[in-house]
Amino acid sequence: MDVAKEFEEAGIKTIPPDARYHNCNATKWCFHTFVDYQKCIRLLGEESECCKEFSKIYRALCPLSWVNRWEEQIQIGTFPVDLPPKTNDCSNFKPK
């Protein structure tokens, strides 16, 4: 029995491929998905199914040390991407 079939029978799933990131190096995919997750939780809330999907993807791709560093940068205001304010009301968000 091959490994893929064993995983499928055990209910173990991984993230689906993304055609935008076809190279073996998943660094950009990791970062972009983390940013998408941060934007999503600010606009839709952490309980959104969309946000949970972004979370699943970035947690599978990104090393924990990177995630910890990015979360620290967000807290101190040095993260290199402008994120919307943490609110479910998007009326205050003005893209730059």
Topology summary:
Layout lengths: L2 H8 L16 H17 L5 H13 L2 H13 L20
Summarize the structure.
This is Cytochrome c oxidase subunit. This protein has 96 residues and is mainly α.
What are its keywords?
4 helices, mainly alpha, 0% strand, 96 residues
Please provide the count of β strands. 0
- Strand-and-helix sequence, N→C? HHHH
Low-confidence stretches: none
What level of helicity do the residues show? Answer: 40-55%
Structural class: mainly alpha
Main pleated-sheet profile:
none
Q: Per the principal axes of the C-alpha atoms, what is the gross shape?
A: globular
The share of residues in extended strands comes to under 5%
Radius of gyration from the CA trace?
Answer: 16 Å
The pLDDT mean sits at 82
Structure report:
It is found in: Mitochondrion. Pfam families: COX6B. This protein has a domain at 24-79. The longest helix has 17 residues, at 27-43. It starts with a helix and ends in a 20-residue tail after the last helix. The protein has helices at 3-10, 27-43, 49-61, 64-76. It is an all-alpha fold. The protein contains 4 helices and no strands. The radius of gyration is 16 Å and the shape is globular.
